[in-house]
Amino acid sequence: MPAPGFEESLFTPIPTLAACTVRRSKETRPLATTYLSLFEAALFGSPLPQKLLSAALTRQSLEVAKGCARKDRPDFEERLVARTALAKLYFELTKGSSMSDISDANPTLGSDAGYLCGRLLALLDKIHSEAHRESGGTNTSPANRSYAAASTTPALIFPQLCKLARYHLNKIGGGWAYCLEHGYPDQGFDGLAALCAKLQNTTEGGFPRTLSLEKQGRFSIGFYYDRCRKWPKTEKGQHELSPTDGAIQQPREN
After folding, report:
1. Confidence (pTM)
2. Per-residue pLDDT, 142
């Protein structure tokens, strides 16, 4: 099964896809029905059951909230890749899926509210990490603290996170803060302002109150893609923030 988000042609084995749906331990093993569903999907293109997507998303929320030590990072990343591949496979095998316009070559085409909320959380997480780079406070980032709430009840958490982003951008300062807020439009990199604007257009001006299970799956894909994107480097003095850059036009609660 292809693992999305990499330039190389990588594949996630079925055992890895199955393992990412349960807690990682010697005592915990995936259900036999999980393997059966994945084999039928690989061999016959059979749709994956919703309960498999639900299991993967539950593990996602728990593991992102827990964070990981540096020595555990490779395993954490492998499981994150596997869950994203599983979610993408779920939508690819589901008839009438609105995720068909998202590809590894251009993952930013989606206009689904869940997908955009996932992208927004990843960017807010990056802004927080950049602001706290010297202190190393990554395990208290928006993703660690708020992934579960952001992926299920966006309207309750995103307004507060967007307000905090202004403080973090001011702390970063200079051209890098400008680019995180305004992006690189000519290179397909949306900044915070552009993502909030896209959400406004998609949701008619507000963050969604709740996200269904399938929208949570789209959220996980959006979160993964923006989390893994490598931003262009900013030359010193390329951009500067001005006083008029202080207001991020974020969606209202819907």
Report:
1. 0.85
2. 86
